[in-house]
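Tokens for chain A. Residues wanted.
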């Protein structure tokens, strides 16, 4: 039996984040939802109202024998602008914040280390990385129509344009 681990990332609109990670080798399942707020069982409307405090996130299971947590964090930082505060591109609000919710102390150490390393790279030229690194909180599954949204649209024959860099 495969022993999987959990990872949870927020990097703007969860549709694009899920689409990227569900295609990675070693990721065994994905789900989009809400995490980091104060309201129990929030809806999409609650989260978009900017009153619940939740971020749009993707929570996924991965096989650490195939893909390491460090590789996942590296991918996370590469798919969005982690220097932006409470926004990604045209999506504005704390629900689109850059955040890593860690499921263990080991994950937290890896994420913090990579964040510090990234700030020293020429790409960011000393710019501050705004990504919050927090312990995992209650994850609330988003509505069914949000799950694997881009994949569903492609199957319906639509051309999907990502909502990510």
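Reply:
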């Amino acid at each position: 039996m495969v022993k999987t681990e959990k990872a949870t990332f927020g990097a703007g609109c969860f549709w694009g984040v899920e689409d990227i990670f569900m295609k990675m080798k070693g990721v065994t399942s994905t789900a989009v939802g809400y995490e980091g707020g104060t309201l129990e069982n929030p809806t999409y409307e609650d989260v978009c109202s900017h009153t619940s405090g939740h971020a749009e996130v993707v929570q996924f299971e991965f096989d650490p024998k195939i893909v390491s947590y460090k590789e996942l964090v590296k991918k996370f930082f590469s798919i969005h602008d982690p220097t932006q505060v409470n926004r990604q591109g045209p999506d504005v609000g704390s629900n689109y914040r850059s955040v890593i919710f860690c499921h263990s102390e080991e994950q937290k150490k890896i994420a913090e280390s990579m964040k510090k390393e990234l700030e020293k790279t020429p790409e960011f030229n000393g710019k501050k990385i705004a990504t919050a690194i927090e312990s995992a909180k209650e994850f609330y599954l988003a509505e069914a129509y949000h799950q694997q949204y881009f994949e569903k649209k492609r199957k319906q024959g639509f051309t999907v344009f990502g909502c990510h860099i």
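The beta strands are 5-11, 27-35, 55-62, 87-88, 91-92, 98-102, 132-135, 139-141. The chain has one domain: 5-155.
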